[in-house]
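Quick check before the chapter quiz. The format below is the same one you will see on the exam, so make sure you can read both the input and the output lines.
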Amino acid sequence: EDELRSAIENTIGKTNPLGGTIDTLLLQPYVRGTEYVVNVASRNGTQVTDAWMSQKKCSGSLILYQREDLVRSSSDVQGVVDYVKQTLDALGIRNGPSHTEVMRTDEGEVVLLEVNPRFQGCRPHARDAAALGRSAFEAVADSFLRPAIFMAEAEKPYTSEKAVCQLFLACPCEQAGALNKEMLSLIACLPTFVTFNRELYPLNRFCPRQGEREWFSRTGRVVFPPIRCKGRTTYLLNSPGVILLSDADATREADYDLIRRNERGLYLPAE
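Here is the expected output.
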């Protein structure tokens, strides 16, 4: 009870990430299990566009995103998908995009964490379709412009042919500094690299295409503009960025591990 009281006192009155003042808190029970993100397009039907299994880690009082892995088939998480659709119906979200996060507990129960009538943040638009095969933006557009195609897709079980992982960077440095452009260049030339996202998204215009990466990797001629880190990562919105990887499981995991092992070198000391 003392810890709870202290947490409330240390939060009320502070500025939230969007610049407003925190004057109300919502308390949720701690739920242990596996977290899922489910994105849906709705219009006289529902179409699951993509679903992710989310992994986070605790660092003291902080909970930091580590990675999200694309769920390959609704059969892997059918109970989760059914629960999300029932939640949208109960809330009357019947048109447009929605972004829902749930936890499947160790006992198999699905528990709602949050639901939002919007697209998920951190979506790379055009590159989304290349990585996932189809994007939520396309699905919502189809629901209004090509409703027959939308309904045909909505009737199909959710599947993804792609094996995709989102890696969330986390800076340990207290002071903001520049990001190591040489390391960013090496990441952009990895065989499984798809796109940079969030704070790193502007770098995509400089990245080599898939067929050019071997040449760029040999010559070291990928040139990025300077980009700075916001300092120590304390939550999602001040993460240095997100890296999208896609390929066969073994290759993708090897590149993921390579980035994680060398991530500390990505953050240069503040000048």
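If your answer matched, good. The chain has eight helices and eight strands.
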